[in-house]
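Blackboard transcription, Thursday session:
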Amino acid sequence: MVWSLFIDGKFDKGQGIDMGVSIFQVAGPIMIGPSSSHTAGAARLGRIAAKLADDFDFVSFGLHGSFAKTGKGHGTDKALLAGVMGIREDDEAISNAYAIADAAKIGYEFHDVDLPGAHENSVRIAFYKNDGLLCLVDGSSLGGGEVRISRIDGYEVELSGNLPTIFVRQQDKRGVISHITTVLADGGINIATMKVSRKNRSEEATCVIEVDDVIEEEILNKMENNPNIYAVKFIKL
Amino acid sequence: MYHSCRQLLEMAETRNVPIHEIVIENEMKHSDMSRAEVMEHMKERYGIMFASAEKALDQPLPTEGSLITGIASNQYRHSQSGATLCGRFINTVMARALSCSEVNASMGKICAMPTAGSCGIVPAVLISVGEKYEKTQEDVINALITATGLGAVVVENATVAGSEGGCQAECGVAAGMAAAGAVELSGGTPAMSMEAFSLALINIMGLVCDPVAGLVQIPCAQRNASQAVNALLSADLALGGSKFPIPTDEVIDAMYKVGKLLPVQLRETAMGGIAATETAKRITDKIFGH
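(Written on the board underneath:)
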């Protein structure tokens, strides 16, 4: 969002530049109440996080800040649980999330956590299968239904889900990123943004790539077919 | 393209078209949509607004702590009773605004306008004014687009978040948007729509966001009702023809600056205002079991 300067009673904006805000950001989102941040955003966070995990049978939610304090009154618990089961933020099924999870034999648990430095509306979601941890995702609800995944298995990332996104785990090694971008270029895919993150040199690293188009399975398989690529996930909401 | 109310008004006046025409053309470029797609998207939202403005009129809905359960059906019954001070029209508008708030609090489906907490104001006003003047659905959707175009200016240049600007930024902006749309539906000029927006915002300037127990129920629902009425009276003040000397962009900027001056206790944190009363604290303890 571009903030304007207020000079002599006039908004000083460049002429001819597109209005930065869609009217559907103002009239929207279409959502299940009561709160765009604590309900709609929570459902969206759950939905994105689940796409990073494989099939899971148990999910644990660590609620931070305002999510822990006032989440219950806003149905944040139901929205998160509904989200990880793929229920959209505008689906009235959110209010039946517990019954739906029970029927699908998905276990769940909620507790309070302190995530230092995290946004007020944050959650740490842990996915399990047969008691083994599959994936750990930290995310925040920023208001108006907008969200950001900030950490995946300890790696710092920045993922909004607003564009189709590829999440790659790879060896931090020369030529790996070039392999990834070459596969995309050969597939005719334009990269909108790309962020590489690693904990230490020559260890495992991650790559978040936002693209303009939906990616075919074949391209993702090609990308994964490399000894230095461990996993490729595609997130399209 | 427009980035201010002044630009939006100039473009509408220069071409002698309604405000919604400029807003539609801008959206087609911004979102790379055809005119039909823009209208279809807004029609979908109108449908959800309409349903949420009706749903709680004849049935109380379950809400956390039952804080506002039945508030809309009570008001609707009162509106039909013939024993109202403000008459059937105003009371029906309030009942519709309350219905949207009650649906929202019951985990029902709503369309944020511009936020979930303020989702009842624009639907209640525009549906009711459309009904009063027997306007077509297309006319009401066009008024909705005019309202939303002005809201977009606020989102771009200021804020509509209660946590940033207080209730004036949520319910106040919603009232401004509704007032502008109501003027258009009543046959007023684009300049009158801008004035109505300004008047609604000055009538609420400085209002704090103080949700009891942090829930989007009290006083949010009541303020949806009162700001729907603010929108109507502001529209009538503008339609009366008296000029208001402060331009809308300056009023929006003033609202934004007032919001920044509000202490954090009065910006959606439930630490001040009505949320900090003894009874509100007891309600909070009862719901959250602290």
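Lecturer's comment: The first strand of chain B starts at residue 109 and ends at 111.
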